[in-house]
Every structure is written in C-alpha cells, then in structure tokens.
Design goal:
Layout (H helix, E strand, L loop, with lengths): L7 H8 L1 E5 L7 H5 L9 E5 H11 L4 H10 L13 H11 L5 H11 L4 H9 L4 H15 L3
Antiparallel strand pairs: 1-2
Helix pairs in contact: 3-5, 4-6
C-alpha cells in the first residue's frame, strides 16, 4: 500500500514555519554531559523569517538576556541606536515592526518570546539543577520589571 502524498498546501505551510526552543540545548550542554537531562521540547511554532531575524538579533539568548541587550541598544532618549548595523536593523523591523521603540520591543519579548507562566511554574516544581532554578527565577524577575 502506498503512503498518501502530502498536499502541496501542507508542504508549503511547513516550509514557512519552524520551531523556536525557549531553552536552547546549546546553553545547557554542560548539564547534559553531567547526565542531567532537561525537557528541551518547550517550544513554539513561529514564522521562519521572524525566527531567523530573532537569532540575528539575539543569537541564542534567553528572553531576559534579550531584554538586557535591547536596553544596551537604547539611547538616552529611549530610542534604538541606529549604529546597530544594517543587518540587525532589518532584523529588528522583522521581529518588532518598522517603527517599534525599545520599550515596545521589550513588551513583545515578554509577551511572545518568553516562557509561558504555567510552564515556568511547572519547571520550578520539578527537581531541577541549581543552574536551571536560577534561570527561571531570573526570567520571573524580568517579566515583572517595568521598563
């Protein structure tokens, strides 16, 4: 019996999306080497173009680190520093919108790129390595900060 072929619509849809892992495995390789396995499948489906732009801006930073980076890119007047370079400015437009201020970008990171609150709480309830508990506590602190 032949396998049914995927429709062109499904294939096209799949090509335009990929998965963003909230906790990148590359950040916790040392834990894996020690035999501590954390559930890295906490992810969300995002538009490929937006996801690639996110990584141009923030490489594999965690949300609270991305917020700190945005603050570093902010001028004294609360505007985005235009000396970022063309590639990062283009990525900024894709992720946050053409005229988004750093303040708006931080809100977008908190709302769309941070771990959902229920998952944070679930992770806190598990017996996790000290490094992970500190990470989660920092994520909660940043999400409560007012910029």
């Amino acid at each position: 019996m032949k396998k049914p072929k995927k429709s062109r619509k499904k294939i096209r849809k799949k090509k335009h999306f990929n998965w963003h892992h909230f906790i990148p495995t590359s950040r916790f390789k040392r834990l894996i080497k020690r035999g501590i396995h954390i559930h890295f499948e906490i992810k969300k489906r995002v538009v490929r173009k937006v996801h690639n732009a996110w990584h141009i801006l923030f490489i594999n930073m965690l949300p609270h680190e991305a917020i700190e980076q945005v603050k570093k890119w902010t001028t004294g007047q609360g505007m985005l520093n235009k000396k970022l370079g063309r590639g990062k400015l283009e990525a900024w437009k894709i992720v946050f919108g053409k005229n988004s201020s750093p303040r708006e970008a931080i809100e977008i990171i908190k709302d769309q790129w941070s771990l959902p609150e229920d998952i944070l709480q679930e992770l806190l309830n598990l017996l996790l390595p000290k490094e992970m508990i500190e990470l989660i506590k920092r994520e909660q602190e940043v999400s409560k900060e007012v910029y």
